[in-house]
Amino acid sequence: MTVHAVHDAARAAREAQPSLARLHRDTKDAVLLAMADALVARAEEIVSANARDLEAADAAGMAAGLRDRLALDPQRVDAIAQQLRDAAALPDPVGEVMRGSVLRNGLELRQVRVPLGVIGMVYEARPNVTVDAAGLALKSGNAVVLRGGSAALHSNTALIAVLRSVLAEHDLPEDLIVGIDEHGRDGVDALMRARGLIDVLIPRGGAGLIRRVVENSLVPVIETGTGKTHILVDASADLDQAEAIVVNAKTQRVGVCNALETLLVHRDVASEALPRLAAPLAEAGVRFHVDEESAGILTAAGTSAEIVPATEEDWDTEYLGLELAVKVVSDLDDALAHVRAHSTGHTESILTRDLLSQQRFLAEVDSAVVMANASTRFSDGSEFGFGAEIGISTQKLHARGPMGLVEMTTGKWLVVGQGHVRP
Amino acid sequence: MTVHAVHDAARAAREAQPSLARLHRDTKDAVLLAMADALVARAEEIVSANARDLEAADAAGMAAGLRDRLALDPQRVDAIAQQLRDAAALPDPVGEVMRGSVLRNGLELRQVRVPLGVIGMVYEARPNVTVDAAGLALKSGNAVVLRGGSAALHSNTALIAVLRSVLAEHDLPEDLIVGIDEHGRDGVDALMRARGLIDVLIPRGGAGLIRRVVENSLVPVIETGTGKTHILVDASADLDQAEAIVVNAKTQRVGVCNALETLLVHRDVASEALPRLAAPLAEAGVRFHVDEESAGILTAAGTSAEIVPATEEDWDTEYLGLELAVKVVSDLDDALAHVRAHSTGHTESILTRDLLSQQRFLAEVDSAVVMANASTRFSDGSEFGFGAEIGISTQKLHARGPMGLVEMTTGKWLVVGQGHVRP
Description:
The structure is a homodimer. With about 425 residues, chain A is an alpha/beta fold. The first copy, chain A, has two domains: about 1-225 and about 400-415, Aldehyde Dehydrogenase, Chain A, domain 1 (3-Layer(aba) Sandwich); about 230-385, Aldehyde Dehydrogenase, Chain A, domain 2, CATH 3.40.309.10. Helix content of chain A is about 45%, strand content about 20%. At the A-B interface, strand 2, helix 10, helix 14, strand 13 and strand 16 of A face strand 2, helix 10, helix 14, strand 13 and strand 16 of B.
């Protein structure tokens, strides 16, 4: 039953999408701004739907962090509406001529940017993602099927109802934005089997959800993966900079995929650098999972930091919290080998003043984003100037790294002849 | 056992690949040219290995068309060597700066083109594909795992041995090119499960093989799909041009994915156009699967063509032979609806002198290649000027339409700061 209902919803979105694909930017932006106004105007209704979700969450003993992401008040509804105004201000990727030429035989060739079609989004109980995803999909000409976590069912239903009513007011099919939260986990399974109905599935959430989707989906998936990010403090690093960058990367915001998870320190500077870096991190409450050599150095320096011996598992753990794996490496090759073995391909950074080290690190690390002398926290669509971000892809096909509106499109080849036949 | 052996082979290719990723174009081209020379020099050995495959094929009663694709002689080995020389002459996509800017805060941002990593190719018993795929992979900096059909086992083994010996002569790891033909169908299953070892799997072959890979692979797949291509003869079409284009699209080469499979004719010109188009096609031996209206028109015109009533199945069949589905459409909307329902998203063409019809067809048909007044046979990497083609993708993610060297690469973001931390 769920499969049929979800596939019917996807089919409706698919049938609605061509009318959106051909809208001009002016119209799309007008709809986005009207949606923002409608959300603000109907904030009370949205907040009271959210209260029902919060009640259920409290009864189920939801963790404080998750509850905070779920909770809405009028100020948060304003912020969500602002996401739509921001999307309206972004350039429209659709129609861009990506490549083009006239062939020797006179055929005119153009590759133009077009919407992907129908995007399936699977994410956690975060109502702001519902609106953000719907807005970015609309701006890029895509219909969207949203599966946002049953814990946010009432909030998402209220938000989607507002967005759909604005579509109808603009004589657009409501099924450009479809929610399937009421189908629970079965809805995700049905989406994964909607081959030919959904063009791409984007899971955003924990590693378990993402693995489940990647391994089971018949629909193409863009993996917004985990970030086991590394920073290498090279022998020639400026230690003042290193201190600022490492503290920023680990503590400016925890629980995000571009936060630092493993610190590698070159042996030549380890005895000076490690105690220096550890002090402000320890002060911020970071606990260290250290290899034997780091342990020795930190202990000898009389560190006040909380240190525990690193296990093999630590080199592959995305803590998403105030924990940090720490290891001394003998040289750049040793560091590169460690990164190759343990990186999730998200973001790595080298701190160095040596040109050759920087060149080698940038060239040899095979991650979506590779940095020198900068905090991994910059690995982000907004920071990159995309204006909006649908996630950070850790796969290599189609989209790699921060995904903006451009990554929600594909190309189409247009070939215009004057009676051309192939010799 | 097969899984372990295939995964070991893929792992070896993965370990070898970084040494190739950093080679300059001059070196890669020199290796390709040396491979071409080695194939010519060792043609006798290759042809005699091929003779063993042909013997087995004859014993098994292989169809003539398949046997012809399998057969090698010194001239064909020359032609295969030429493919490598052609690859050497192509520009190197690796290192291209795709996007780049300096952010407001001074961070330098560049997206550069890098190899995908390890490409798995699954294809039929065509020894020329073995060399072509290996050459294009090498040029684009990728290691390749080749599974070319057990009927070509001895031929492929001989060809791969020659290529690997040239790698070794150039101090490159032989495992940049790995063949796994000896593992038969189980080898394909093992490749599909080589997640983390193979970056992308490209199946080339019949619809059954492609569906099996798409539905079962845990590794990302690029689908080189079937081509149920359509031509619409619009009311305003120049019928001289239409005749030339339709004959070219259907008969210039049959059995290829960009050959015409369904002819749609606008009702306003059907009684004139259909008999005119049918005559030269019938002469070329084409059999027509016609809807009722086409049947009436052709019969009334006293056609000599062989016509059979079209079944529902005909609208979805890729004949790959001298067969053609024919249907009269009432107008452009009717044609667009038929294409939407039955196209495989490969290539469609409109023949028209009406600007609005052309605009609407190019905008509204959602296929990889959409043409006006040109034969569908131009939907091809060589014709597009890519110089080489690894296949034609009918999916929307990553690569859509003819795939050349560029489509065998991905992007990597390089971010260079001077001690940047995120505020």
